[in-house]
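Same chain as my last thread, 161 residues:
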Amino acid sequence: MSKTTYSTPQLAMLVALRVAIGWHFMYEGVVKTFQSGWSSYAYLMDSKGFLSGTFQNMASNPSTLKVIDFLNIWGLILIGFSLITGLFSRYAKIGAFLLLLMYFLAQPPLMNVTYIFPGEGSYLWVNKVLIEMLAVGVLFLFPTGHIIGLDRFINYYRNKK
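reply #2:
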């Protein structure tokens, strides 16, 4: 693995972005665990766009919905924890990107489409989910966990052998 060097401001901003996105993910997952009866049912049933049928089918099957809710909550918590601590951060960024992509595809910001729970502001193609997904992509390309994060210790012991 090549040595990546960043200036102090670059590293600080990349780590701050990683931790902020991690906090957002972890907080959303933890909140969902304490909301009794929380389910992704309404979100999936309100899906629009070319994959809406797929998302609505997932929501209409109680067994599938239960698995989706479990994976969603614990995916958010584990991805968030990983990004905050810099532990297995490369995998967490892939997971975050894929999860955000699913959210984006389930409720894309399209013209003349309204959702039961509208987002803040008016969007066309670009919304906060897409922006966060792109930010995770930037973090994937400019990794920091091996510099500031628990991945540093894993790399240290792996290279020591």
